[in-house]
Structure prediction request, 224 residues.
Amino acid sequence: MDVIEAVKARRSIRAFKPDPVPMGIIKEILEIAVRSPSANNTQPWEFAVLTGAALDDVRKANLDAFNKRTPFDPGIPLPDVKWGEPYRGRQLELGIALFRLLGIPKDDFPAKVAWAEKGLRFFDAPATILICVDDSNKDTVYIFDSGAVAQTIALVALHFGLGTCIQRHVTNYQEAIRKNLGLPASKRIIIAVSLGYPDEASPLFKFRSTREPVDSVTTWFGFD
Ligand SMILES: Cc1cc2nc3c(=O)[nH]c(=O)nc-3n(C[C@H](O)[C@H](O)[C@H](O)COP(=O)(O)O)c2cc1C
Prediction:
């Protein structure tokens, strides 16, 4: 798969087959993905790769925290932002499209909670990669670097027939996750990339999110 095909083919996968992903494949993905750029080549990322019982324990920890209404404790500061337009509209469009595919009516609150819980279970992916950054790194550009490596992981995973979902929601109870895994308090969990073999039978499999046309987000200078 060439790079253009990969970028066009990548999309968030939220339904996986239970088949395990071999450790060797994930290691190969990470070995390639660490070629991602980072500010001043600081390579701030560290990876915690979870599968099997370790991942199941973290799913449970996330659900416990959610059901106990534990206050959010994300790795990236989460300001209490009310999204205005055009961002709110795009977010709503995504939610409406996903709920329609899942057959969840607008006012079915329990079904929406169940979907949120599925997200907190890493969409039942057989593996997930937590991208962490040590607290000693104070330059907020680590958020950009983490995004670069997350996208590279998602693209390289395609080469191995794997689907991915970059997930922020799952990192909202990072203290509970750290405790579960025995990770030091200094490791901020920035984002997760869940991965596995896509469940092609799921109604979600064919879903394609929309994009704004490039012309509406681009201003050209000096071309004429
Ligand atoms: C930083 C970041 C955080 C995300 N967090 C979540 C998440 O918590 N749950 C989820 O289902 N998708 C999450 N996504 C996936 C986005 O919803 C998805 O990338 C977007 O809707 C575009 O769709 P596509 O990935 O299928 O192209 C996240 C993506 C990014 C880049």
